[in-house]
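This protein record is not my work; I was only asked to verify it. The record follows directly below this note.
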Amino acid sequence: FLQVLCSFSSQVATVTDYGAFIKIPGCRKQGLVHRTHMSSCRVDKPSEIVDVGDKVWVKLIGKEMKDDKLKLSLSMKVVNQGTGKDLDPNNVSLDQDERKKRTFRDYTSQKITLEAVLNTVCKKCGCKGHFAKECFMQPGGTKYSLIPEEEEEEVAAAAAGCERDEKSSVADHPSKKRKK
């Protein structure tokens, strides 16, 4: 009976912070429905979903031998709670859940090494920080510089404004037009 992944109706034996234990019909065993398998929505408190003695439809999704004890994993979210119909007969959503768990990797312990090119001079343009084969400059072409940040432009404009106030006599003459 435990080899077949099928849905069955049973009773909730106990409710914990991490899930609910369900009685397995025909034996003394219980299986755990973890809170992540109670609903397709996030469940923070299993006691808000089920109570002791409630009848629920569950599906056996896994079994594991641990310390000479058989531990059974059950799911409520892959079974229609009204009819008991298996909503995931080919275990597609269970496989997707497993893949999601496996895709997270913790890389915090690994060091990041930057392979920046330092102290190099380009033979084409004479600039530092890159090689000739990576140069975007044509010999004798236009050199490009970084555009200043907005804050730097505002500071430069404010400084220019102060200079204009000091030279206001020149700016007040209508005969001298200023080009922009």
Summary: Residues 150-166 form the longest helix (17 residues). Helices lie at 92-103, 150-166, 168-172. The two ends are 87 Å apart (CA to CA). The beta strands are 7-15, 19-23, 30-34, 55-66, 69-75.
